[in-house]
Amino acid sequence: MQMKNWLISTLLLTSLSVTASNLDTTRADLIVALQTQIAKNYVDVNKVEHINNSLTMLSPEVYSHLSDEKFIALITKTLEKHDAHFSFQEKPDQTKKQPAMESWFSRLSRSNSGFNSVENLKGGVGYIDFWGFDSVNDKSRKRVSAVMQLVSDSQAIIIDLRNNGGGSAEMVQLISSYFLDGKVHLNSFYSRPSDSRTDFWTYADIPAIFKQDVPVYILTSKKTFSAAEEFAYNFKHLKRATLIGEKTKGGANPWQWFEVGASHRVAVPISMAINPITQTNWEGVGVQPDINTIADSAFDIAYQKALLDIKSKTKNPFLSDEINIELSKLEEKQQQL
User: Which of 22, 55, 68, 334 would you label with 242, given CA atoms 20 to 30 Å apart?
Assistant: First the structure.
């Protein structure tokens, strides 16, 4: 009887050991396949060796005891340390009906191109808050034009990107064109698959409603991402805006899905932004604000600065009185904090 129990226990342990060994082998193979896709497709070839070395350091002792979900999270976290656009996941099961997922641009299209709030604040300050950069088409062009016309009398503009997750580089071009005179080189993208570079300039057919003497304040947060970061980065280095808030998330490189084995896939950044002034971008480091403060305080600081700037220039006594009232309100609010 004791011999029988020993034999059963031994067989069970052996079975478990083989299962764990097979799991480790499968995951090790996944990591090798993942490294291959990164080496073939990642846009910044100078980083490839460093990225793949960080994956090699994930030994079976680290991941063998993890569930599939936690293993995937470990890989994604490892990759995101190098580039925020990396992602690793199981491929959707094509035999099962997948829940419908609305695309970012579809949601923007049915949501006023992402514009949450457009206001003429007291004191001559325009305020524009939007959560994404929509695709450029006839409908979105009309929406942007309407937004700009609504605040066209403003003597200072606050652009709120604190909850903006990005989107279209063409929309960055379009909105930028209302603030920059002449043909201005905003950004370029290098694509590794095509080994080509595309330049993005302001649109010649869009008049700059807001001239250089109209100050612009851009609000940022840790959630400001991708195309929203590009907009802030461009304006900062063109010295066209003062950035107020938090360092942004740090994603500058567009991505594409690639298969990893039969069951998984990885989002690999295949292009990179190249600013014409800095010759680099904000990948991994974020866009640094000119005035560093918590996101919740950014609006009040920008509004105060805008009011003070307008006050220093205006000869209209009624506008001056209006500005003084608003400045007093802001001062009272600060004293209560």
Answer: 334
Backbone angles phi, psi at 300, to 5 degrees: -60, -40
Whole-angstrom Cα distance, residue 7 to residue 249?
57
E-strand ranges in 131-241 read 156-160, 185-191, 196-201, 216-220
Pairing of strands 185-191, 271-274: antiparallel
User: Do 163 and 298 touch, CB atoms closer than 8 A?
Assistant: no
Amino acid identity, residue 335? Q
Antiparallel, parallel or unpaired: β 242-245 and 255-260: unpaired
Of 293, 143, 114, give the one whose Cα is nearest residue 219.
Answer: 293
Q: Is 12 helix (H, G, I), strand (E, B) or coil?
A: helix
Nearest by Cα to 273 from 258, 286, 283: 283
CB 209 within 8 A of CB 152: yes
Answer yes or no: are the C-beta atoms of 216 and 157 closer than 8 Å: yes
Report phi then psi at 129, rounded to 5.
-120, 120
Alpha helices in 83-222 (DSSP H): 104-109, 138-150, 169-177
Spell out the per-residue pLDDT of the chain, length 337, in tens: 444 444 344 434 444 343 444 455 589 999 999 999 999 999 999 999 999 999 999 989 889 899 999 999 999 999 999 988 899 999 987 677 767 889 999 999 999 999 999 999 999 999 999 999 999 999 999 999 999 999 999 999 999 999 999 999 999 999 999 999 999 999 999 999 999 999 999 999 999 999 999 999 999 999 999 999 999 999 999 999 999 999 999 999 889 999 999 899 999 999 999 999 999 999 989 999 999 999 999 999 999 999 999 999 999 999 999 999 999 999 999 998 7
Bridge partners, 271 (sequence order): 191
d(CA 137, CA 168): 11
State how far the Cα of 127 lies from the Cα of 150, in Å rounded to an integer.
10
Cα–Cα nearest to 237, from 191, 184, 194, 285: 184
φ, ψ for residue 52, nearest 5 deg: -70, -30
